[in-house]
# Entry
Amino acid sequence: MSLFRIIDAIRSSLRYKLLVLVLFPILLIMPIALGLAIYWGSQFSYEQLFIKVNTDLSVAEDNFYRLQEDYLNTLGRLAESHAFYTALESRSGQVVNQQLEELQRAAGFSYLHLLGVQGRHMFLPYGAAEKRTHPSASLLAALQGNPRVEIEIFSAEALDEQSPGLAKQIELSLLDTPRARPTQQRVEDRGMMIRALYPVKNSRGQVVAVLDGGVLLNANFKFVDTIRDLVYGPGSLPKGSIGTVTVFLNDVRITTNVPRSPNQRALGTRVSDEVRTQVLDHGEKWIDRAFVVNDWYISAYQPIIDVNGERVGMLYAGFLESPSRNALWQALGVLILLFLALMLFSSILSISGAKSIFKPLEMMMAVVRATREGYTKRIGKISSMDEIGVLANEFDLLLDLLQERNLQVQQWADQLEEKVDERTAELKLKNEKLLTTIQILRETRAQLIAAEKLAALGELTAGVAHEINNPTAVMLGNLDLLVEELGDSAAPVKGEIDLIIEQIFRIKDIINNLLQYARPDQITEALSVIDVNEVIQHTLALVRYLRKQKQFEIRLDLKATRPIKVNPHELQQVLVNLFVNAAHALDKRAGIISLGTEDWDEKGVVIKIEDNGVGIEEEQIDLIFNPFHTSKRVGEGTGLGLSVSYGLIKKYGGDITVSSGQGEGSLFSVWLLQEPDLVEEESALMEQLQSTQAAESSFSQSKRRA
# Structure
């Protein structure tokens, strides 16, 4: 049977669907779960093995360095003993040499010498040739009074200098080892030495000699077996596994308890190339499976560092993988067998239990098909008393009732459709009226609010304009008189006087702008093509007094290249308002105000003023452009600055946007069109403005001449 036929049979038969639903979790999901469990179990088991071998390496390392300290402490006890000090001070060479020989035999030193402050051997037997001392940084430290114990590598000549014939004893032939890095070397005759140096001091604390003792690790089975017994004690490994510890000189095993064959240690064998690369070449630990001589071990390697800080060998701890792997697969095998038995039992039970459901359902399906084709057919009496049996018995009654109700529903549906059409048309008409009413209400409310604000502002600005224009006229007249009286003496301060006059006229411009805000449909200033970067530079000269009140940094990034048509005084007023607000928003920390310009697509330019001050609360952002709204204390602000600025920019078809966060500063962006989109009847208003300015200019000149 092809796959398509099987799929068709499942689609057309409830029997097969039920079987698929019952057997799907057993035959598909449960095997997947078993596979995941096997994978996770094996991964978890190996992770635990790697954690154990890493711990074993740490224990081996601790004992490796503890044994070194033990050798140093042994020399310390001799150096600080009364008998040794007395013999040394009395220059009794025979007694000193006898004590050294006894300690060398008892402690297991490969050599033990007494060196003078010049680094030469003391109390050599009569006629003995002078021996060379192996130089190292540890020796220099000991001569300065600091005990040291380090790993040092001795050449064959250096070993014979310490003890004749010692190099010959440790000469080790290298054996071919699977997976090792190819090499031309055939013999290893160097020695890895634990060298302990302890200074001997007189009663005044001066170094008079140094005890120099070395323990050769090559073929030192006692040393490596001691560490092995401490790391892999009884019961620490599965049955049949063996724990091993090895000391490498470069990549060669110079002392180990890894077996190469029964009763033979794997001396002269070499580590695999991948381990050597990671540990010796890169200086990293190896925690993983590794091929050791002739079998796989759960292994941990770390580099051995000598007195010069160089990687000269490796310390290894590990145990056979096969016992742990066999135990794992045995457990997984038992799990698989139990799962297969459970799956088979569940399948048989599911199939046999599902058969009792199929017959009533098939009979119900036959009735449904007959009903769909227009025939009247019933199931009849079913003996089964379960839910399916009860459902089949009730199905006939349901069909009869359904047939009767269908007739009633059809009648009701015909009546309901007519009523729904009528009510739908009425509801649609009412919704349209409601939407229109809501829109009108919103527009009316906005107009009322704006009218109320502008009425109050118009009344206020009219009074303010009258009160301020009179003092400014007096100030202009007195400045003209002052210039005329001073004559040439006013030349040094001419720039300041001109700036004062310019600012008085700017006050008048501001008053005009306030009046314009109250009557936004009027234009009171002439427009000109300007460079916004120059306006910003002039504006900074006007607000420099703020830096005397509060220290802050000004950063400029003026990149706009497109000229715009606008009234420069009104733009300067907007910039001054925004800059002053930014300065007031700065807190006590180092303040920064950034001013930047850039081109705005093909439309115009955008001016950005950003500060790192206290920021604006989220609920206040929608209110800051309303007249008389201010967050300052009473007496510190009127709440008109942003409102006036917003009105001025909107007059030209531009916009002011703000983004801010509490405690994160604020960014105000002024969007200006290259060609402003002015109010209606612009030409007539511009002509009226120009005539007004000409008259004002003529009046000013006449006043100065007077």
